[in-house]
Design brief:
Chain lengths: 139, 447
């Protein structure tokens, strides 16, 4: 038993950031997920959405829900990450001044995702884009 | 307390209901359906906010109150009144005159709920500093909001401040005071005059608390009429001096910003149940943790907008704000008020038990089955028109889809699906007619 959802995210569209995570939250409530887990998953997906909006040209999010786990695949077309280990540190950010002025891009994104999930895999090619795989166990 | 015993103050009177679905379309928790030409309430979904009561064109929704004659069953009957009561009357009807009228009607004593806020203000400030609960902390003042969080935002129950609302504290105080004066507890009848259904429901089946010091509830509109009838007969309208010792903060407490403006840190006040739901979605997403305190009220203009208030909410707000300004000139010290004699006792007894979530959103307890049902819901949704016309007797296409999956409705209830079936000769005219009759009753089909 699995359900799958796809979302497309445009870079720079800050007003729409949070759409996918809000949508997923509704689903998770319906399948009787532990509220604490819902919060963690929603925060992780929201950060991933924000990363696309703040850094990339555009991106795709694929969510697979099974009774045991949730797998979120995020794939963006954008600048990519040069040093992934560094990007994982709290406070590290490559966000433009413009984005920072809006109050985003404080550089908590990737570490915040990692802190709220069971597994985070990152693959990135500079100049092309970044792929994330975020796995959260539901039991 | 099991879900089945959940008390509601709102009742649909089937003999009056015309099945017009106005209530169904405004219910914020999707608790209403139309069947057999009558509105039907899903008890576990209702939070007693009263939005249905406001829109019912025939007055079929009633707010259940206690029989007024119950007040005569006690040696000492107390009218426990919110400040909103005084805001129902124009300024020439003084507080003294209203007190006198309440006593003439049959109450032995009158006490104002807002005296309890003077204690609550202090304890809540302390709570905000000391509690390690998740932020923002949410006030438990409005019972409709507490229930809304239980049923629609189960992840947020841990944000609720576990302190009794002023109503409970005031009742607790007054009972103790009378006991000390020599009354037996069973001789004391405390009756709360309410502006809303949610407070009745909270009194009859309290959330997070088992004790109850309140013996009955009387509706604001009922007492308003009684008071008016009494003061019209009053010859000496002017000579009713009353020494009002409420602080300005207490007078304003039940109005929007009444709590938030008196707390420290980043505090927001939000009124109107739709506004509250919008905001709680954000809180759930976890990006509001730098807010310290949320004052959330189900009614627009908070308690001034209570469904049982006869007066216009904006006039009530104006009157109470003017009153607060007058009280500010008096330089009242809250600590001088009698309720402070019981300060320690009240502080020791104001804790609420943790609020238990009871989600109405889950499709099944078991995750695998819930997931299967969710897939079916999605599948059904793809076949429904998405216009939310309500012709099926459910408020939205998505509500119908969920009802179908729960086995409480059929895809054929959708009027668009019916047309498609008829065209493909899969449904007779007769069958389509019978379906609509089953939902809306024969009357509406002019049959």
């Amino acid at each position: 038993m699995m359900m799958e959802f796809n979302y497309e995210i445009n870079g720079g569209d800050f007003s729409k950031a949070g759409f996918a995570s809000s949508n997923l939250k509704k689903m998770l409530k319906q399948i009787n997920t532990d509220p604490k887990l819902i919060k963690r998953i929603v925060i992780a997906l929201y950060e991933a959405e924000m990363n696309i909006v703040a850094h990339a040209y555009d991106g795709k999010i694929n969510v697979k829900i099974t009774p045991g786990q949730i797998i979120i695949n995020v794939s963006d077309r954008g600048p990519g990450i040069e040093d992934i280990d560094k990007a994982m540190e709290d406070g590290y950010s490559t966000a433009s001044d413009e984005v920072r002025e809006m109050g985003f891009g404080a550089g908590m994104g990737l570490s915040n995702i990692k802190n709220n999930t069971d597994q985070l895999d990152i693959e990135s090619t500079v100049g092309k884009g970044t792929d994330l795989k975020i796995v959260t166990k539901l039991r | 307390m099991g879900h089945k015993s959940f008390h509601h103050a709102l009742k649909i009177q089937e003999d009056i209901c015309i099945g017009c679905a106005h209530c169904m379309n405004v219910c914020p928790t999707g608790a209403l359906r139309v069947r057999e030409g009558k509105a039907q309430l899903y008890n576990e979904r209702c939070v007693d906010c009263g939005e249905c009561y406001r829109v019912c064109p025939v007055g079929a929704i009633m707010v259940e109150q206690d029989d007024f004659s119950k007040i005569y069953d006690y040696k000492c009957s107390v009218a426990l009144v919110p400040e909103i009561l005084f805001g129902q009357f124009p300024e020439n009807v003084s507080k003294g005159l209203i007190y006198k009228a309440l006593e003439k009607i049959g109450f032995d004593s009158v006490f104002e709920v807002e005296y309890a806020t003077e204690i609550l203000q202090e304890t809540t400030r302390k709570y905000l500093k000391e509690s390690d609960q998740e932020r923002p902390l949410i006030s438990a003042f409005c019972p409709a909001i507490v229930r809304l969080i239980q049923v629609k935002f189960p992840a947020l129950v841990n944000h609720i401040i576990l302190q009794k609302p002023p109503l409970d504290i005031a009742a607790m105080y007054y009972r103790q005071k009378l006991i000390e004066q020599g009354y037996n507890s069973e001789d004391i009848g405390i009756f709360y005059v309410t502006q809303c259904a949610a407070k009745i429901a909270a009194i009859k089946s309290p959330v997070g608390d088992s004790s109850n010091d309140i013996n009955g509830v009387i509706n604001m509109d009922f007492i308003y009429n009684k008071i008016y009838a009494t003061i019209q007969k009053e010859e000496d309208q002017a000579n009713n001096a009353y020494d009002d010792n409420l602080t300005p903060e207490a007078v304003n407490w039940s109005l929007t910003h009444g709590e938030a403006d008196n707390m420290e840190g980043r505090c927001l006040a939000i009124d109107g149940i739709e506004n509250v739901m919008d905001f709680l979605e954000k809180v759930e997403d976890g990006d509001m943790e730098d807010i310290d305190f949320l004052e959330l009220r189900a009614c627009d203009e908070s308690c001034a907008g209570g469904i049982l208030n006869p007066s216009n909410r904006f006039l009530t707000v104006e009157r109470l704000r003017n009153k607060a300004k007058k009280q500010a000139e008096k330089e009242i010290k809250a600590s001088d008020n009698d309720i402070n004699e019981k300060y320690n006792y009240l502080v020791d007894h104001l804790e609420l038990k943790p609020v238990i979530p009871r989600s109405i959103l889950k499709l099944d307890e078991d995750m695998t089955r819930a997931l299967k049902k969710m897939r079916r819901v999605e599948d059904i949704m793809s076949r429904l028109p998405g216009v939310d016309c309500g012709s099926c007797g459910a408020p939205t296409c998505s509500a119908l889809a969920q009802d179908i999956v729960k086995g409480e409705a059929s895809l054929k209830d959708c009027i668009f699906i019916q047309r498609g079936y008829e065209k493909r000769d899969m449904m007779s005219r007769e069958e389509a007619y019978e379906i609509m009759k089953r939902i809306w009753g024969a009357n509406k089909l002019n049959d």
